Structure formats: C-alpha cells, structure tokens
Amino acid sequence: MITRKALPRRTFLRGIGTAAIGLPFLDAMSPAMAATTKSPVRMAFFYVPNGMIMDAWNPSYEGAFQELPRTLKPLEPFKDDMLQIGNLTHNTGRALLDGAGDHGRCSGSYLTGIQVKKSLVEIKNGISFDQIVANEIGKQTRFPSLELGMEDARQAGDCDSGYSCAYTNNLAWRSETQPLPPTLDPRALFERMFGSGQPMTPAERARQSKYRRSILDYVTDDTHKLETSLGPTDRRKLDEYLSSIREVERQIERAEKDNQQIDPHMDKPYGVPADFAEHFRMMSNMVAIAFQADQTRIVTFLMTREGSSRPYRELGIPDGHHPLTHHRNQAELMEKVRVINQYHVQQFASIVEKLKSTKEGDGTLLDNSMLVYGAGLSDPNAHLHEDLPTIIVGKGGNYFKTGRRVLARRETPMCNLFLTMMDRMGLHVENFGDSTGRLDGLDLA
Amino acid sequence: MQFGRGKPSAGAFYDSDFTTIDEVLAVGLLNGLQGKNDCRVAIVTMSRPNLAVCGYIDMVERYYRGSAGNFAQVPPIGMRTTGQPGETSAAFTVPFASKKRVNPVKTVIDTGDPNTLFRNYLQAQYDQNGFFILAGPATNLAAALEFRGMKELIAAKMKYLVAALPERNIKADVAAAKKVLAEWPTPVYVVGEDIGTAIEFPGASIDKEFAANSPENPFSDAYKAYKPMPYNAPSWAMAATLYAGRPKEGYFKASEPGTITVRDDGKLGFTASAQGRHQMLSVDPAQKDKVLQAYIDLTSAKPVFPQRFRPPVADDKKADDKKSDVKKIIEEKPQ
Known about the structure:
The structure holds two protein chains of two kinds.
Chain A: E1 12-14, E2 20-22, E3 42-47, E4 63-64, E5 82-89, H1 102-108, H2 129-137, E6 146-149, E7 158-160, E8 163-164, H3 165-168, H4 186-194, H5 202-210, H6 220-228, H7 232-262, H8 276-292, E9 298-302, E10 311-312, E11 317-320, H9 321-325, H10 331-356, E12 359-360, E13 363-364, E14 369-374, E15 390-393, E16 404-413, H11 414-424
Parallel strand pairs in A: 3-9, 3-14, 5-16, 6-9
Antiparallel strand pairs in A: 1-2, 4-16, 5-15, 7-8, 10-11, 12-13, 14-15
Helix pairs in contact in A: 4-8, 7-8, 8-10
Chain B: E1 11-16, H1 21-35, E2 40-46, H2 51-65, E3 78-79, H3 114-122, E4 130-135, H4 139-145, H5 150-157, E5 160-164, H6 167-172, H7 174-183, E6 188-191, H8 193-198, E7 200-201, H9 209-213, H10 219-226, E8 233-234, H11 236-245, E9 252-254, E10 258-262, E11 268-272, E12 278-283, H12 288-299, H13 326-331
Parallel strand pairs in B: 1-2, 1-4, 2-3, 4-5, 5-6, 6-12
Antiparallel strand pairs in B: 7-8, 9-12, 10-11
C-alpha cells in the first residue's frame, strides 16, 4: 500500500528574516498513484505602445502559419505555439466625440473596454478584466496579480491631449477610479516575490547588501531539509529553479552596480538597468518564476507606456518612438518603426522561450499559459483602433488551436476575446465592456 | 469624426436588403446628401447574407469615402449572416467587369455584424443628431431593438427613422415590421406604397446626367444590368432617403401624427392621435419635379470625400452638443 504523503502545492522555503520562496510544481506534490493534477492556467498581457507598421505584422494569408511576417520573425521557433488574431477592435479607444487623445484612450480602455473620461483630475475608467479574474481566483495564489512596467509610473499630469497619465501608464484597474500602477524596479519586484510580499526598507536592503548575501542563503536550512525528501527528478527541478532565482538576483546586482557607475541622474529607480533588453529580461524572468511557482496566475506588463517617445539608440535610432509613428508614409520613418516593432517582439520571445523550456506536468509551462502580446492601436499614423495587433502564445491549458492566423469579422470587439479568456481562467461572465459574445473558432474543437 | 468644431451634420444609418435598384441608388443619393453637408454617412447595413451584393455595396461606399486617411476609418458593410441569401442580380456583378473596380468582400470576415456597427457608430453621434433609413425588411432593426442597451442608445442619439415600407418589404418579415413600428423609440416617418410608384427614377438620366457628372460612378453599369433598358425605377428607398436628409425641404407631405400598425397581410393601418410617434409621407404633386431633380442631381454627383473638419450644420449651430453617458446606457441594460 502506498502511503507517501504529498507535499502541499503552496509550500514555501522560509528562512531568517522575511525570505519566503514559493516552489515550482514538483512530482512530490502529486499523491502517488493519484490522477494527474491539472495545472492551473495563467494569463499575461504584454502591451506595446504606438501601434505597428501593419504590413510587417499581418501575413498575407489566413490559416496555418507559413513564413512569418517580419515583425513576428523572432517568434519563428514558437510559431506552433502561437495564434494570431486579426480584426479585433476597441471602439472605446476611438474619439466618440471626445476629440484628440487616441493614445490616452487606447491604453486606458485596453483591458477595460470602457471609454475613459477625458480629464486630468477626475479619473474614470472601469475595472479591467484581469482584475475581475484576480478577484475570483487571486486568493489561490500568493499575489492575486502582478502589474509590471518598464518606463514611467507617473499617475498624474497630462500624458495625451487632456488625458491623465493614469490612463497611459496603467493597464490594470481595480475599480473605475483606482488603477494598479506597475512595478518598474526589478529589485522591488524581487523583494516582493521572495520576501514578505513588500519591498525591503532601505535599512534592510543595506544590511543584506553589506553582507552580500543571496536570498537563497536565508533559506538554506529549509532547502536542505526539502531536498532530502525529494526524488532525483524533483531535486534537479528544484536546483534549476533556485538557480534561475539566483541568476535574476545576480542580474539585479549587476544593474545596480552599473547604475551607480554610469548614470547618476537617471530618472529611474535604483535597480532599473539602463538597457531595455536587460530590464525586460530581468522582469520577464521573474514573471516566469512567478508562474512556475504559482505565485500568481495573472500578469499585466506595460513594456513601454502608450505614447512613449523613448529613443532606441541601442538600435541606432535616436528619434522618439511616438514621433516616428506619425510617419506620414515616409519610407525612412516607417522602416525605423518596423525595427522597433521587431525589437519589442524579440524581447517578448525571451519569456516565451523561458516558459517553453520549463516542464510542467506532461507538457510545458507555456502550454498552460496565455501570453497576449499586442497594442491598443494598429496603424499609428492614422490612429486606427481596428485590426489591433494581437497574438496569443501558449495553449491556455490545451485549449487554443495554435500555429495559425485567424481573422474575426471586422469590428469584432476585443472584449469578446476577453470573455473567452475569462472562460479559460474558470470564470464565466456574460458581458464585459462592449463585448457582443465570445470569440469563436479559437479552440481545438 | 469632428474635433471641437461644433455639432456636425446628422449621422446617417442606412439598412436595406438591396433587392431593387432603387435601394442601391439610394446609397448614392445618401452620399450626395453628404456631399452637400446635409448628413454624414455613418454605416450601411444589409439584411440578407449575400456576399456578392455586400461586395458591390462596399465598393460603392469606398467610391464615396476614398481611401482611409488620418483618423478616418472605412467601416465595413454590416451584413446579417442568417436567413436566405436571395437572388444576386447582375446589377451587383456586372460593374466588376471594369478592372478599375475591386470587390473588397471575399468572405464574411470582410463584413461587420450589424448590431456591433449600429452600437459603435451610434456612440460616435451627438445626441439627437442622427437618423436611420430603413429601405428593406425590418429584420436588422428589429434585432437591434433586442441588443443590449441599443434601444436606449437609439433614443438618445437618433432624431427619427424614415422607413420605406411598400408591401414587399413588410411581407419579407412581417414580425420585424410590427416590432419596429411598435417599439422604435423615436419618431417614425413611413414611405408607403404610393410614393414609390408615383415618382419613378428616370432611367434616361443614366446616359445623360450620370455620364456627364460622374462618368466613373458605380451605378450606371448596375442600372443597365438590373433590367433591360429603357426603364424607370420606383423610388421608395430614394424617397425615404431624400426625406431623411432634408426633412424641411417640403419634398413630401407628412400626415398628422398617429400610430401606424402592420397587418398580417402586409398592409399598413393608420390611426391619428396627437401623441402618436408615426407619420405617413405622401406625394405632393407640386413637388414632383423638384423631387426628381434632387434624385438625379444628388445621386449623380461626384464624390466629396469625408473631411476631418466640416462646417457645422447651418440651422443647428446653436444646438447643444450633448453627449449621453454611453457607458451607463450599456451597463444598465443587461442582455
């Protein structure tokens, strides 16, 4: 008779101070001979600003992927895990009598499907659908959701023609008046994830830094105890997992060191690296760890804020992103935007690779995820809110039939996709935002 | 879309099954009215699932809208996807023999859902600054009344509905006609059987005014392919469109207010009442030539591409630019 007691799913390695490290799914967490435990489905949104040059985003065909268009090329190794959806529309991003301000509207309404109030002080949006899901399933994980960003977390001021920065700098909204500002600083995210749930105080951080201790050092005893009860497969899995945490920690330390040396006036938190790709890699690695350890199942990630005028000198582009997108069909400017568009996708591909290489159950972490990558505008020169660039990477728990491009009818609300995704997250909602129904034809059936 | 320049001309919503050449010409007339700043064409929708017909109408719309530019969308034609596709007249296919014309509709993906389009484009109108034209069976409009929050949105945004309801249109969907007349939340003006036959569009104008004013127009080929020439076309849809765009022009006589009902045999009944929201339109013999001239001039006019900034409507300059709380309307009406 088999009597082995299963390790609880929500086991933490705890140690001195506030360290608390969640664990990935281990074989020891499944009772022997029990039916395979169903892995949870995770969802994440990776938002890029200022639309796309659509001729490099949309392939000329529908159905199974053949040659990927230029912007999506970095995802070539993962095209069998990817679903591209065309023709989704956010009508609430359009002017609808509110005049200029497409950037403020399109990001504000991206996950809410609500026409935001044009104001600098009287902020009014709606609850975003990720938070509806978080309210329902968030109690099953350490963090109901994680909100991440890379550029600008200002919550006040005019970011677009009378629209508050609250609309351009947040994707997630807890209520119609309360956005959830993204965490920009990898150090703050790290400490939140592997500490008490809150960033350390300056004194705590200084103490840890002084002794150059890794977060893993604090949980050594617990780790050793756990290892003795694990089989060889689980031990290897645990070792890889803890190594990935240590690697992120090292990246943060390097960034902090570099920041002290090269950029004392940088308008960023202490731990934010100057390099865009490095910053993204650190943040997205932690997303992967958070998903792997089931610390959260919901992430929103503002890769850069809507309307961003960030230059991309690392690509030889000193011009601001936003001004470039008003290209007036000038070939030279359009080409620079294509390069930026592809660069963003290239960064995104790194987390796809990470999730795909992480085993979970009989498949991979990517199989149980829905990573939506997209923008709130399509053609930025015309400020169009239809045919929004949208891909889903991952099968959402063996649901999405990937490896193809599907086209919805023109003007199909983006919120229809959100209803479908809510279904996948175990939440059945009849209407959301301006939805008109669920998005058909995405599944394996 | 207007940007801070006062109230624009009224947004026009046109729905038809496009089974007669009159219903096709009315799209040209509507765009002619737009060219004179009497209205802005919001969307055109179709109440039968016929891709060939939809493709032709889409091509006509693009002829008038030009290509999409800054801040301007070319909306799809809304097409019902259930029911019977019906016949496809040569009027809808022959015009594509010209290589200059491209059919933009290949599959249903290239069309839009009528209710979604109604909702999206109603939200873009100022309060009481739009009108519907029904020029076919009332199927789409009846369905719209069942859509979440739509009735309230129509009441907020639309001034009136002008419905071309000859027996043919009523009999195609009696239940829908009954529902629309009973539940439509704005004043309704009805073009009955008599107007269409009393004032016929003169087919001779195709080779005269149309050829002279807009040789590239998409109607001449269609008109000639629809029936052997020469023929004149009854004008229920054109009459409804002309009245909708220029209600104060005196083209037609409007009855006293009352209630119009639909009988099971497809005939209309009218009961006068001061509180009634319905009015019947009828021919004013003194205006017949003026009506015919408007038909020809407006339908054969060259396209005037929509501009980002258009002057406000002359007689509405002082009107309040009111805007309803659309979110509230949608959210408070569960489906």
